[in-house]
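Sample entry follows:

_____
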Amino acid sequence: MRFLGGFLKVLSIFIMIVATIVCTAVAVMADVMEAYLIMGGALLCALIVTLNVWGTGMALSQTAKLKKKVQALEERLNVIAMQRYVAPEAIQPRPLQTQPAEVSGESETPIVQEDQPVAAPVAPAAPVNEKKKSKIWIPIVVIAGVLILGIVGLLVIKTLLGGLFGGQMENPAESETQTEVIWEEQPMEEAPMEEVPCGMTVDSVWVDDSYQDEDGSSLKMVYLFYTLEASDSNLKIDSKYTQMIINGNVYESDHFADKAAVCKYTPNYYYGSYIRDVYVGESKQVVATFKIPEGDLEGGKEIKLQDSQIPGIDSITLYSDEFQHATDPEEVAAMVDPEGFEAEMLAREEADSDTVKKVKKCLNGYYWTFYVNSTSYKIEFWEKNNFCVTTAFGANEGTYSVRNGYIFCTYPDTGYTVEIPYSFDESGNFDLDTIGGFDVFS
C-alpha cells in the first residue's frame, strides 16, 4: 500500500506536467484568445485532479505507515506480556526454614515460610517515535512550481515559434478541407466593422520641385491641402503629426515656418503648430507639409494617411500620379488659394506716401515688448526708418520699410527680413502684430 501511495504521488506530478505541455501546444497552435482561456481551464482542472491524486497517495502512504506502527506496537505488547508471565516450572523451591519459638509455656509450633514466585524484571518499553509532521506543503510547492514553469514555457515557445513561423503555426496533418471550413466560418463569426465617417476631404497635393534641402539631399517639400468638417463631434487640428505612408515608408508632417514658402501666400489654409478647435457644424481648411525623397514621389505608388486627431482618415487612399508638381511657390498658392494669394501679394506691395507717413507716425518714437518663442523681446522704432530688436541674447539693429499690410524689418548683416503685420481699425487705432511677425510656430 505504501508503494501504491508513492506511485500516486509521482503520477500526480506526471499528470500536471503532461497537462501543461498539452495546453501549451494547443495555445501556441491556435494563436487565439479562446485558446488561452481553454488552457487556463484545463490547467485548473489538472491542478484539481493532481491535488486529489496526491491527497489519495498521501492517505494511502499514511495508512501504510500507521498499519506498520500498529503491528510494531502489538509485537511489543506481546513481548511485555511474555516477560510478566512466569511458568510454574521456572519457580525454584527453597528449603523450609524453622524458627525456634519463644519460651512461653506453649508448644512449639514451627513457622513455615513458603517460597513465592519471583517475577522476572521487566525491561522498560522503548519510547514510541513521535508522529512526523505533515508535509502537505510539498505537493502545493511542487504543483505551483510546475504551473509557473508551464506558463513561462508557453511564453518562451510562443516567442520562438512566433519568430520561426511568423506568429502562426500550421499543423501539416490538417487536410485542405479543414482549412477551407475555417476560412468559410470566419466571416460568420466576425461582427461586421462599423465604418467611421471621415470628415476630411483632400483638396490637392502639391510638390515644390524647386525646394532644396539644407543638407543637399533629394528631399522635396510636399503640401497636403485638405478641408476638415466636424459633423458629429468637435475636433482638434494642427499642421503636425499627420503621417503619409508610401510603400511602408512613413513621413510625418511638421511646421517648417518660412521654408514652406507656399503657406506664406495661402492665408485661408491654417498652417501652424498650435492646435485649433473645429466645432460641430464648422469646417476648417488646413495644410500639412512633408519632406519626402524624390524616389517615393514617382508615379504608380499608393499612399495612405494617418492622424490620431482625424477619425476615419485611414479610409483615404491617394496615388502619386495625382500629385501636382510646380517650381514656383507663388504659382502653387495662386492655384490653391487664389483670393488669399491676391490679398497677401497686395499686402506686401510698397505703400503709398500717405500710408507711409501715417504708419511712421505711429511707429517712430515708440517701442513694443512681447514674449514669444520662450524669449522676451523689445522692438523700438525711430527716425527715419530705423529699428532695434533687443532680447536676452543681445540687440540687433536694422532698417524698415512700410508696405500695405506689413512692416518689413531687414537686418543688414544677414539680409533676413521679418514681416510684421499691422492694421488700422475702424476708429483709426494702430495695431502692430509683433507676435505674428516673430512667432516661429505660426
